[in-house]
């Protein structure tokens, strides 16, 4: 075919070759006009491709000048308005000049290949076919039928077109091969392209099989990263994972010099594991949580303030009134630490302090004062009812919802490796099938072991030797013995009424005013009203309930001021009951009348001391004894011992019996008074359990009084245990008991001699100045002091 004027059809999607018989869909108006023109004139048509950036335009500048000349074998109009044609390519064509643009008509010439050397072409074509076979082994570009066609064909131009059509080339690449008229060079260019594809496909195969690459390492790494990013985009995976891993590594390296080798290895191992995990997996989430906890550990972070005893003493005196002995012992403890620091010695072998005392006495607030003085964070760990050992040591990471133990969480919260840690209510630890938390506490509180404390969750050693541990307890006897051996107890006893008054005046009232947004000029409390509040509205050793009652007063006062009922409120003894619900009557004032068979005993309770009345009644009978009042085994034994001891004293004549109580038996002989009557001993308030080894002398006095019809001094109270031989044994809780006696208006207190010699120095002067303390050695001494002569 020579030069001719042909209609031009523009194809946006397909790149056609002369050998193809291809269905083409037309929806552009100009293309359909060109088609109709060709069919009308029964002439060939030329199909050209639009340029990549000009798709959709139908101008000569927007199309390639080379295309395929061929015939339209069939035309079909589709229901949606498109036109489908079956096109048969015949020759390459080139647009010489434009003739019309609606439709596109151009002068077209047939493209003829340059002359070539047949032998060189055959050799090049053989290499081309080998390259095609090699590439077909690596991908799916060449179906078996196409491979056979290529292998069987000796027409070089047709083979080139078949190969290019199979490779799905981009428009510009396909066009460059298409317009090449130098057949030998065209074959060589296609071979070069095939070889590049072969190398690329080999690299992909090597990646899949993890075989060492023969390609440059830098190129391979780049390819891997790019391919991984593409895969991640397709799967919708977070592309920030790499940045997260990098951040973890940076945080780890920043803390490496401050952590132990096993900690570094464990964290680094988990970072490496995370980098290989799919981000949507459950294990990936667990590992990320672990790394967040582990890298939040404040490795190398310590309070920089220098330890000084003066600061500790100043803070204790500022925050607490009284507590002279406890504060003195705390000062000694930190004085030793300061001395060791000043001499460059280790101080991690000291005892663990344990504050023991009734509720509200100030145990936790003492620890808070220590924390403030040392400028260290305070971490409070409540141990009451704790029974799961994993709460302290951490859960193993195999469990869902695993977390570090409370100790590790406390360090992270404090952001320091040397905070003050308060182990609150250590006497209330429980034990169950989940383990014994005491075993963990033994390791935590042992200075010889806690430098390598191991948390199950973190799975590496943590140095707790710089932490200051302070335990608190209400009852030291409830603390397991192994734990007691590791602690030094500082006993905090009950406050006297005067101490409570000073504490309320100096601390509680001003603090509560501030909390309630009130001024001291708006609400005032008289001294007598404050004393009445302490004596009649609270029942405690400490001041916690006193704080609550003050808060009650101030809440109602704030409401009055808010309602503009008054501008200034003064709390007096007369209007105090308007602000509080009811009186508690902590300790009943002792009777002024001496009575037979009623004695004042002194007892220790969890909220301080108490005056315990013990009553006895005799009924004609056969010498039996009944005991009521919900007493424990120890008090029942005390009553039995007291009964036997009083019988012995009556037999010896040391207790005289009035003649009117002496009875004659059937044989005319005198009966012992204790065989003539049945005794009933009762401790009032039977709903309250009572027990303890200090009621022996009180039981003895009551029994002696009722059997001898001798009154007991009403203003005398007593405490002490006895033996069958009549010796008075020492007791505990003397301070609380004497304070209770003082509150009840007792004039004389009978106590064991050993307590008199060793414990009176701990008794407040306010009590000693207003009460006579009588020391006794035997039950005879007790009876002389207690019974009215």
Automatic annotation (TrEMBL):
Ranges of residues in domain Lon proteolytic: 593-789
Annotated GO MF terms: serine-type endopeptidase activity
UniProt subunit comment: Homohexamer. Organized in a ring with a central cavity.
NCBIfam families: lon (TIGR00763)
Compartment(s): Cytoplasm
Name this polypeptide is given: Lon protease
Enzyme Commission number, as recorded: 3.4.21.53
Gene3D superfamilies with a match to the protein in the record: 1.10.8.60, 1.20.5.5270, 1.20.58.1480, 3.30.230.10, LON domain-like, P-loop containing nucleotide triphosphate hydrolases
UniProt xrefs under Pfam families: AAA, Lon_C, Lon_lid, LON_substr_bdg
Location of the Lon N-terminal domain: 6-198
